[in-house]
């Protein structure tokens, strides 16, 4: 049974760009996977170059699972008429580690604040509906340190519990970095903690 806190929804690659039109204004919307806030600026700058006649590149992003961070940017549109409606769709589709951009090319007719909110919301929704949303498991990482005599029993548990080895260093002593589902982290910590001559520490 999947536990809610163990799994999150995201995208692994940018979605196809969709076009939404309202009274001759064009809204190009796309969803992008991001790993940190630093990923946002280059994507937005790239869109400004691509659509050099665009009046606004509005966006919203969210990162993290337990205490997610988010930002919404109206890029010159009236306050909260663009970024927040886009962010509302991120919440509605329950996705994280994503950036949604909506690039507007003005068509000559003002839409009014209500019209803008609707247009940005709809464009973001269409981008999400066209994206391939995947489920990912939240993992915890641990470092194991032990001598060669302990190798067999450590490896046996890793195999039994189907744990994932992220990296290994075999020098005078052995060091493994393993990752486990967040919901199994306490049990894993306890198992290795009770083994003699094996040190386990959780990594950020």
UniProtKB/TrEMBL annotation:
InterPro entries referenced in this protein's UniProt entry, alphabetically: Impact, Impact_N, Impact_N_sf, Ribosomal_Su5_D2-typ_SF
Impact N-terminal domain sequence ranges: 23-128
Family to which this protein belongs: Belongs to the IMPACT family.
Pfam family, one: Impact_N
Biological source species: [Muricauda] lutisoli
Protein name as catalogued: YigZ family protein
């Amino acid at each position: 049974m999947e536990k809610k806190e163990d799994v999150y929804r995201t995208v692994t690659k940018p979605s196809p760009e969709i076009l939404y039109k309202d009274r001759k204004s064009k809204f190009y919307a796309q969803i992008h996977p991001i790993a940190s806030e630093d990923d946002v600026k280059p994507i937005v700058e790239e869109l400004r170059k691509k659509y050099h006649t665009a009046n606004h590149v509005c966006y919203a992003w969210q990162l993290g699972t337990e205490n997610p961070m988010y930002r919404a940017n109206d890029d010159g549109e009236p306050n909260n008429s663009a970024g927040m409606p886009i962010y509302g769709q991120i919440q509605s589709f329950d996705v994280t580690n994503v950036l949604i951009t909506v690039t507007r090319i003005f068509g000559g007719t003002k839409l009014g604040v209500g019209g803008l909110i609707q247009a940005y919301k709809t464009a973001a929704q269409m981008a999400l509906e066209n994206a391939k949303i995947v489920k990912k498991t939240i993992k915890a990482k641990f470092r194991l340190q032990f001598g060669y005599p302990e190798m067999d029993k450590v490896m046996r548990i890793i195999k039994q519990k189907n744990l994932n080895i992220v990296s290994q260093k075999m020098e005078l002593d052995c060091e493994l970095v393993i990752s486990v589902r967040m919901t199994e982290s306490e049990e894993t910590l306890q198992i290795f903690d009770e083994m003699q001559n094996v040190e386990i520490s959780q990594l950020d």
